[in-house]
Amino acid sequence: MTDGIQVSGLVKRYPRNRDLLRFLRSPMRREFTEVLQGIDLSIPRGGIYSLLGPNGAGKTTLLKSLAGLLLPNAGQITVDGVELGGDPAGLRERVSLAVCDERSFYWRISARENLRFFASLNGHRGKDRGERVLECLDLVGLADFADRRYMELSSGMRQKLALARGLLLDPSILMMDEPTRSLDPEATLRIHEVVRKILAQDPKRIVLYSTHDLAEAESISSHVIILRNGRIVTQKSLAKSGSSSDLIYCIRTYPVAPEALLEALSGVEVMGSHEDAVTVRIDDLTRLDALLEQLRRSGLRPLELVQKHSSLRDLYLASGEQGE
Amino acid sequence: MRFWRIAVAFVRREFLEDASYPLKVILSLVAVVINLGFLLVFTEFLGKTLTYKFGGMSGEYLPFLLLGLSFHTLLDTALRELSSRVRQAQNQGVLEALLATKAPMRCIMLALPLYPVMRSCIRIVIFLLLSAALLDVSLRWDNWPMAIAVLGMGIIVFGALGLIFAGLTVVFKRTEPLVNGFNAACFLLSGVIVPWEELPPLLQSVAAFLPLTPALEAFRYSLLDGSDWGLVGPAFLRMSLFAAVLVPLSVLVFRWSVRQAMRDGSLAQY
Question: With contacts defined as CB-CB under 8 Å, which chain B residues touch A101?
Answer without folding.
Answer: 93, 96-97
